[in-house]
What does this fold into?
Amino acid sequence: MKWLRRILLVVAVSFLAAGCNDIKNVNNISLASCGVKYITPTGLRSLSGVLLLEIDNPSMHFTVSDVEGCVKFSERKMILFTAGEVPVQRHSCQVYELPCSAELADKVSYLDIMAIAAKSSYEGLTADVDLRVTLKSGVGKTLHFKDIDLSQISQ
It folds into this structure.
């Protein structure tokens, strides 16, 4: 999971800049799993929902914000999404709820989404994600990840 290592490196550098004593634990931060709590159609081409992110954080408090990206199925863009903010508590392993809003990509219908969801598997689904990680001190960095395999981190 190269993207997870990149986020850990940025968080580690940010911790150094902020003078954090828990720098030794930064490499142990992990996204243990992710899942979907619910998805609700809100219009002809829009959705809203809540993602579940299980984050194991043995280090300091940080916030993930300005999340946006797309979900792809077999390299075809299916859903474009934006998400809220998640404050990740220090020295914890817990599930966080991330409210999201989404829009169907061009030439994608609800039937396409339902056909994928009916398989009850994340196989073939990838995501491109941009997000901002900010420490309590205000030091932050925007990160960009491509082709995250959702089947490897799904619940």
